[in-house]
Design goal:
74 residues
């Protein structure tokens, strides 16, 4: 993971339980920068065609919208 993702608080942390394997975002870091990153992700999901195609492909794989946004932040 890059330094930027750790500084923003977008670095993945294992949050698995039982058979489910997933990651959550680190809650530490620069919260204002994380909010800016969140705004960028939302805008790209609304306006950017390649990002929309990526999100649709991930939805067909069974990934939730919340997990898709986490992936885009990384």
């Amino acid at each position: 993971m890059t330094c930027l993702s750790a500084a923003v608080g977008a670095a993945p942390i294992p949050a698995s339980s039982g058979k489910t394997v997933r990651y959550r975002l680190n809650r530490s870091g620069d919260r204002q920068l994380n909010r800016a990153l969140h705004t960028i992700v939302l805008t790209r999901l609304q306006r950017d065609e390649p990002t929309r195609a990526y999100a649709e492909r991930r939805r067909t794989e069974g990934i939730t919208d919340r997990e898709i946004k986490r992936c885009l932040k990384r």
